[in-house]
Design brief:
By secondary structure, the protein is an alpha+beta fold. Helix 2 (27-34) crosses helix 3 and helix 5 (83-98) packs antiparallel against helix 9. The protein is built from 9 helices and 9 strands. The two termini are 32 Å apart. The protein is elongated, with a radius of gyration of 22 Å. It has a 6-stranded antiparallel sheet. Strands 1-3-2 form a 3-stranded antiparallel sheet. The protein has helices at 6-17, 27-34, 38-50, 68-80, 83-98, 140-147, 151-158, 174-187, 229-249, and strands at residues 25-26, 54-56, 63-66, 101-108, 111-118, 133-135, 190-193, 200-208, 214-223.
Length: 257
C-alpha cells in the first residue's frame, strides 16, 4: 500500500467538513475543527476555491460552501452506480457474517422483485432466486418498502387490491396490514413470520439513496429451526447495518438508516 499524501488528506478533510451543519464554513471554523495552522487552512481554501471545489458565499462574506466541481463528481459517481451489483456485494458481506440467506429487493407496484441474493451456507436454507416477484404484503422487504411510501401513494396502491395470502400466516386484511406498516415505521425494521414461506421468517431494513428516499430493502431470511427472539434481534441489527452500508454506497449521508 502506498504512502498517504498529507496535503491531499488535509484537503479532503476540509471538503468533508461541509457534509455537516448548514453547508457553509469560515476559515477560522475550519482551523478550529481540524486543528491546523491558519496559514495552511488559508492555502487549502484558496486552492480548493481556485479549482471550483469551494466557492465563497455572496451574502456571507468570509464563508465558503461546496462548489460545482463536487456536484459534477457526485453526479458522475451516481451515473456509475448499479444497485443490483452494489446490493450483491453488501449481501455477500452480510451473508458471510450471519451464514443466512440475504436478499435485496425493490418495489414494483404492489410486488417486490429480488434484485440480489446470496445463499445461506447451511444445508437447510430458503429456496429463492434473484428476479423472483412476490406480493409485497407477504414479505419483510415488501412491508418495509410499503411503509416508506407517502400516505397518498400507499393509498393509491392499496385501493382495490386483493391481499392474497401465500401461507396461513399472511396478512389478508387491509386494516391489519396498515397496522403492521405503522409498526414498521415506528421500529425502522420489518419482520415477517412464515408469511411468504411456512418454514421461514425474515427481517428487513430500508436502503436509501443520496436524497434519503427509500429505494430498496435488505433482508435476512432464516428457517424456523434457527429462529428465536434473540436471533431476531441480532439479525435486525445486522440487516440495519447492511442496509446502512448499501445506502452509503448509493450516496446517502448518515449512519444506520
Amino acid at each position: 500500500m502506498g504512502r498517504l499524501v498529507p496535503a491531499v488528506t488535509r484537503a479532503l478533510d476540509v471538503l468533508e467538513l461541509f457534509l455537516d451543519g448548514d453547508g457553509t464554513l469560515s476559515a477560522p471554523e475550519v482551523t478550529r475543527k481540524l486543528q491546523l495552522p491558519r496559514t495552511t487552512v488559508h492555502e487549502l481554501l484558496t486552492t480548493l476555491a481556485a479549482r471550483s471545489y469551494l466557492v465563497t458565499t455572496p451574502d456571507q462574506p468570509g464563508r465558503y460552501r461546496l462548489g460545482v466541481r463536487t456536484y459534477q463528481l457526485g453526479s458522475r459517481y451516481a451515473e456509475q452506480l448499479d444497485l443490483a451489483a452494489e446490493g450483491r456485494q453488501v449481501a455477500q458481506q452480510v451473508a458471510e457474517t450471519c451464514g443466512e440467506t440475504v436478499h435485496v429487493a425493490i418495489l414494483e407496484e404492489t410486488d417486490v422483485i429480488y434484485i440480489a441474493k446470496v445463499d445461506s451456507t447451511h444445508a437447510v436454507r430458503m429456496v429463492s432466486a434473484a428476479g423472483r416477484k412476490l406480493p409485497a404484503h407477504c414479505t419483510s422487504v415488501g412491508k418495509m418498502l410499503l411503509a416508506a411510501l407517502p400516505g397518498r401513494e400507499l393509498d393509491a396502491r392499496l385501493d382495490g387490491l386483493e391481499l392474497t395470502g401465500m401461507t396461513p400466516n399472511s396478512i389478508t386484511d387491509e386494516a391489519e396490514l396498515r397496522t403492521a406498516l405503522d409498526a414498521v415505521r415506528e421500529r425502522g425494521i420489518a419482520v415477517e413470520h412464515r408469511e411468504s414461506n411456512p418454514d421461514v421468517s425474515c427481517v428487513a431494513a430500508p436502503v436509501r439513496d443520496r436524497t434519503g428516499r427509500v429505494v430498496a430493502a435488505l433482508s435476512i431470511s432464516v428457517p424456523m429451526i434457527r429462529w428465536s427472539d434473540e436471533r431476531e434481534q441480532e439479525l435486525a441489527a445486522l440487516a440495519a447495518d447492511g442496509a446502512a452500508d448499501l445506502s452509503g454506497r448509493l450516496g446517502h449521508h448518515g449512519g444506520r438508516v
